[in-house]
Structures are given as C-alpha cells and as structure tokens.
Amino acid sequence: MERMAALYSSEEALSRLNAATLEMPPQAQREVRELYQQFAQYNQALTAAFPSSSHEEVTLEEARRQLQTLRDLRAQYFGTAKAQTMFGLEESMQQQLLEDAANAVATPNISQSKAIEHAQEKLAREMLGGVGGSSQGP
What we know:
The chain is an all-alpha fold. The radius of gyration is 19 Å and the shape is elongated. The chain has two domains: 1-52; 54-138, no CATH class. Helix content is 75%, strand content 0%.
C-alpha cells in the first residue's frame, strides 16, 4: 500500500489494485480497496502531523512524542489490531532504540548523537545475531 500511494495517483493506484485483485473474492477486493483508502487518509494525516522534515537534531523526548503520534494515528486510521499487525514490529524496534539511546545518553560524556549511534548498533547486533536480551553496554 505504501508503494502504491507513493508511486501513483489515487485513481491509478485503485486501478492497479483492482487489476491485481480480479481473481480474489469480492469481499477480499473490497478489503484491499478499503485498506488503500485507509492508508491514503493515514498518509494525509501524517503530512499534517509532521508538515516538514527539519534538519535540526530532534531530542529523544521529541522522538518519543513523534512515535506516540504515529501510534495514535495508526490506531485511528487502521484500528488497534490492524495497526499492531502492520506496524507493531517497527514500533517495537523504534521504542527499543529510544530506550537504549536514553540509557546511553545517561552515560557521562556521551552526546545524544553518539548515544543514538550506539543504540542503532545494539539493535543491529540483536537483529542479526538473534541476541534478544543481551546487554553489551552502549
């Protein structure tokens, strides 16, 4: 849905979705169209909530507020269960990054950008190595 919304006008996206779902039952076709409409409305809400991407450094507290705004918008446009299915893993990883960065920034003489870098490295190690809950420090 994200690619369809990014690459095509609404009419073109719906036309392509209709063509791709021709062999599906009518209920499934309706659900695909509804999901696309929800996603398009969600995208508009995102643009309104985050009007421009500033190149200024965002604080960890602001990043937490942004993540909460994303969660709220996703629940509003997709419903809690569908939002969890669609975005739950991403949100969980973002939350873990924020927590790890906050823990690292509490370390003396470490900048926020360095703390975020350490948190990203930790998450990458966990994802690649399947190291669930190991704590190797910042």
